[in-house]
Amino acid sequence: MSYKGFMNCNSRVSKEEQEFYDLKMKAAEYYRANGVPQKMEGVLNDMFFDKPEDIYGYLANYFSKLSSPPVISRLLGKEIYDGKGQLSLQAQVLCIIKNEEKTTCSAVISSHREVLDNSFQDQSGVTNINNDKRRDSVMAALHWIHESLNTILKGSDPCDQTGVDKILSDFFMARYLEDQDIRNREKENPPPSVPVPEPSPPTAPPKDKKGGDKGKKGNSTEKPIPPPEPSELVLPGSMAIGSVSLAVAKTGALLQCLPLYKYIKALRNQQPCPEEMHIPVPLVTLLSCGKMSPGKLNLLEEVIVIPKAGQRLKQVLTLTTTTYFQPLFSNFKLHILFSICPVLLGESIKTQPVLPTVSDSGALVVGYERPEQPLDLITEASNNLGLALGKGIHLAVNCAAHNLMDYPKGKYEVITGTPKSPDELVDMYEALISKYPAVVALIDPLRKEDVEQWERLSSVVGASCSLLSDISSKPQCHSSREDAPSLPGVRGYILNQSNETTVTDLIHVTTENKVIIGTTCGEPCSDDALSDVVVGLGVGYVKLGGLSRGERLTKYNRLISIEEELAQQGILGMAFSSLVFSAGRKRRLDKAMGRRETEEQSST
């Protein structure tokens, strides 16, 4: 009987019963409009035939597929302390999942403004200034996250990485241009009480009595060096961009039930993961003889081992540890170092540098007088174990030359008290590569302003040695949308995930250029997501530093875990070397190594 008929037959129906009947009719209409009865009937029929053991689990799985996709509800920023006790930023993403707000993932990235270890130099004032700037940057990042980013990303799809990163990059670009505009106005109208210092031009080398340059033969004069380009601005708060981008990528991987490396691989290929994936070849830092080392040598910021491609990562790290790190680190009194190569050191123990320590890059810090000494040390250690450098194991050198320029003199302080002009430095590299053919890559051998010397260096060593440039300090809001900065002869670039670098930026740069992903020099970040990122991006090489310090070993351990997962799944491919080696390069190297072996035999 209809409601109207029922009411006509029985006029004594209470108001409560009438309201309850109306409510039931509204509920029935609501369920019919959303197709609930049809879906219920369908799943119940399917379940009857399937007869699952877990009935409610079956229903839960069915209805979870019908639920609305998760959306970002809000972001949280937290102050944390990194592995060096420095203030850092952690970004968290919260999503609405099945009508409930849940914390999904968090991420921490490195900042390009790291406070480096100054064990051998008294720079406490500089360190305090850097700490203050870092605190200001973290506070600005927290403000960005809790105010602007929290609002503009609310309701966004966490699985739309490209869309989220575009919002983040557009936001950063607006702040970047706004800050630039403020700085330009301040330069045009500086406050009267704040004078604007003018950079002092490089002074000419001292003249001798004959009118020529001191120390130079003939009447040749050195050309003035190009002035330094303005340093790239590190915008306070920029670490919020990279941190949120990585946290969103982790969230997307979690929601799609994929490991992060497979999720990023799918983003890069715009399709499901390929059948095979490979682990990048690790560039392992062994020694640090740079500006912070106790000796006179400033040039070799990092001496890096490049293992042969095609080996399992665990095998590579075990070989590197037993061949180099254990002998070098086992005794801080240096008697093991002296027993490895007593002839090469040529000095008594009393005249050696101070006891070695571990650098921020996870390498042994040693002091030397000449660049040949650390290379001789590694060569001798290899030969003692029957591992000839240049046959399966090669070397790279991070020169970090931009930190060595003495602008008043217009020369590089390669060795304390022995400055060299850009042209003299090119000659030095040429001699070094000729003597040590196992050195197959130079990272930042010159300032980016010395374009003429880059071209000359490429012409003299480019056939046997790759020139690499670090572009980490260049804001990715620019470089990710343009080709990498052009320098003559450069074959690849070093890029770190820091500050405003988003996951989409990394995908774009690694697709368009030959890039080695690495960590910052002062890497204090213990988040191991970078290992997933490099595997997902499919890069050929990864630069994680030395086999020391927990922040770096967590990333190495994660790479080993990924390698084991891929091997178990039968999709582990072999890494291929596309950056440094070629058939012609190998022939020249074999010829050079054969020549050295002949010389050694004749000398004995």
UniProtKB/TrEMBL annotation:
One of its GO terms (biological process) is glycolytic process. InterPro entries: DD_ENO4, Enolase, Enolase-like_C_sf, Enolase-like_N, Enolase_C, Enolase_N. Gene3D superfamilies: Enolase-like C-terminal domain, Enolase-like, N-terminal domain. It comes from Oncorhynchus mykiss. Residues 72-264 form the Enolase N-terminal domain. Belongs to the enolase family. Pfam families: Enolase_C. Residues 190-205 have a biased composition (Pro residues). Pathway: Carbohydrate degradation; glycolysis; pyruvate from D-glyceraldehyde 3-phosphate: step 4/5. Residues 206-220 have a biased composition (Basic and acidic residues). This is Enolase 4. The gene is eno4. The keyword Kinase does not apply.
